[in-house]
Amino acid sequence: YHQHRLQLLAIRDKFGGPNSGYFLGTFYMFKNKSIPDIFDIVVGLHKRYGPDVAIIGAFNDLVLDLSSAKNVEKVLLAKSTKKSFVYDYLEPWLGTGLLISFGEKWFQRRKIITPAFHFKILDQFMDVFNEEADILVSKLEKHVGKGEFDIYDYVTLYALDSICATSMGVQINAQEDPNNEYAQGVKQMSEFIFRRVFSVFRQFPSLFFLYPFAREQGQVIKKLHNFTNSVIEKRRQQLQAEQAVGQVEFNADEEDLYSKRRDTFLDQLLKVKVDGKPLSTADIREEVDTFMFEGHDTTTSGISFTILNLAKHQDIQQKVFEEIDGMLGANAKSTELTSSLLQDMKYLDMVIKESLRLVPPVPFIGRKLLEDMEMNGTTIPAGTTFSLNIFAIHRNPKVFPEPEKFIPERFSDDNDVKRGPYDYIPFSAGFRNCIGQKYALLEMKVTIVKLLASYRILPGETTDQVRYKADLVLRPTCGIPVKLVKRV
Ligand code: HEM
To answer: What is residue 482's three-state secondary structure?
Structure first.
């Protein structure tokens, strides 16, 4: 243990990092701290120690928290990594779906699923985004002219409806049900995972049963799985009914997937044959669980924080509105938005990009090193955890001067501060990048255009008090408080 510690201390000398106790490591920094305080502490380490920080956690657990473009690139391109321990905590819920799997399994699944996010398919999703965003706008009507309210939960249900209708082909009408069990369950799971990550016993997964929420987690996962099972079953029945009247081809083989354009993500999973065999129900469920979660929680954060930034910056909101008004005029509220219309909204694009910079919905991603690697002139041993700190990457003052400020013009064509490919990575980069990034951008844009066409969004009394907390996704501590004024 002692020898290992000396090795880790030598590595820390090459990076910089906080003091670490002999057994409990840096636990002292997080003890009795609130969730937003913990987020600030992790981010603050970069201000103190520089872009790459070595944290020696309890029982000699080394985490390299990286934000320099050169080291982030090195890790993202390395073949000898897998996802870090944090993703193991997701496994009882998400199985080894696309987010978590690696090696051959990941490669095969990515190949099967990629066509479901082809831009031609995304075009077909536009009617769903339009329809669901119209419902969102109507649900918000009751807040017009009233006091501040939290818009985050409305956006969550909207995003959940959208992912189910687009990718699963099933309507769940979550927007009609503010107490939706699935959305509640995701919140609870995120919290359990956060508590494990910052627990001193995290190195001992077999002791999980001792955690106070271990039993509750089992029940929550059961609820989440019941929900996704019901979505799969509903779609299976719909397909069978369509097949009975001759509308669906049921023997698509793997090669066909790239030419097929009409199937949803779930249809493809239900129909695909790998080595002549269909995927098992468990295989399908783990992907549906993965996409249902990744496909709504991330975009909810992206949309909500864009709303927050627009509420705080009325001048920028006005410019976005003028762009919408200039293109759609009096029909702004009722126009069916298409991807080509959105493409012409250049300022909106800059606003969304800047919001994903300032508040990246996925603030950290984790990797575990499987083979030794050279970094900062030293050997990093296999088994080390890397945390790629997207939040800190996006606040590099050399690339983003005055990084705390919301300045969409950073993304204009004539901004002359040059960016490298690893300086801005809200969707990660390299072969494990986000498969849903185009989907996410379209959904975010439709929502913002629909909202601004109907309402001016004002800050509430407590808007300035919003702090960040990060579990799997970056979230506001107490929702996104705003006020609405109707546009006439
Ligand atoms: C603003 C919204 C989004 C952001 C910021 C985002 C960000 C990311 C990031 C940073 C990763 C890399 C994770 C890692 O390496 O561990 C990722 C992966 C992934 N994302 Fe997204 N995402 C968003 C929306 C979506 C949507 C809408 C979907 C699905 C419809 C989705 C599905 C996935 C999946 C399945 C992966 C794993 C891909 C793989 O490993 O092959 N994401 N996303």
So the answer is: strand
Q: Which residues of 273-282 are buried (b: 16+ CB within 10 A; e: fewer)?
A: eeeeeebeee
pLDDT, tens digit, for every residue of 136-150? 999 999 999 999 999
ipTM of the complex: 0.99
By C-alpha distance, which of 362, 349, 357, 366 is closest to 442? 349
Q: If you measure from the C-alpha of residue 129 to the centroid of ligand 1, how many angstroms do you get, rounded to a whole number?
A: 19
* Residue partners of 352: CB distance under 8 A and separation at least 6: 302, 306, 441, 444, 445, 448
Amino acid at 404: E
Phi then psi dihedrals of residue 233, to 5 deg = -65, -40
Inter-residue contact 263 to 271 (CB < 8 Å): yes
Asked if residues 456 and 487 have their Cβ atoms less than 8 Å apart, the reply is yes
d(CA 27, CA 351): 38
Residues 6 or more apart in contact with residue 448 via CB below 8 angstroms: 303, 306, 307, 310, 320, 348, 351, 352
Pocket test for ligand 1, best of 122, 362, 393 (most atoms within 8 A of CB): 362
Whether the predicted model's global pTM rises above the 0.90 cut: yes
Expressed in angstroms, the distance from the first to the final Cα of the chain is 69
**What's the CA gap between 90 and 94, in Å, rounded?**
6
HSE-up of residue 150 (Cα within 13 Å, Cβ side): 13
Helices (H), 50-151: 69-77, 85-88, 91-94, 103-113, 119-140
Expressed in angstroms and rounded, the spacing between residue 54 Cα and the centre of ligand 1 is 26
Question: Is residue 34 classed exposed, middle or buried when 0-12, 13-18 and 19+ CB atoms within 10 A define those classes?
Answer: exposed
- Residue 56 CB–ligand 1 contact under 6 Å: no
Rounded Cα gap, residues 446 and 303, in angstroms: 10
In terms of Cα–Cα distance, which of 448, 433, 252 is closest to 350? Answer: 448
User: Amino acid identity of 196?
Assistant: R
Tell the residue nearest (CA) to atom 3 of ligand 1: 298
CA distance 391 to 398: 15
Least confident of 142-151, 232-241, 323-332, 430-439: 232-241
Rg, the chain, Cα only = 23
Beta-carbon contacts of 378 under 8 Å, excluding residues fewer than 6 positions away, are: 10, 11, 14
Q: Is the pLDDT of residue 256 over 70?
A: no
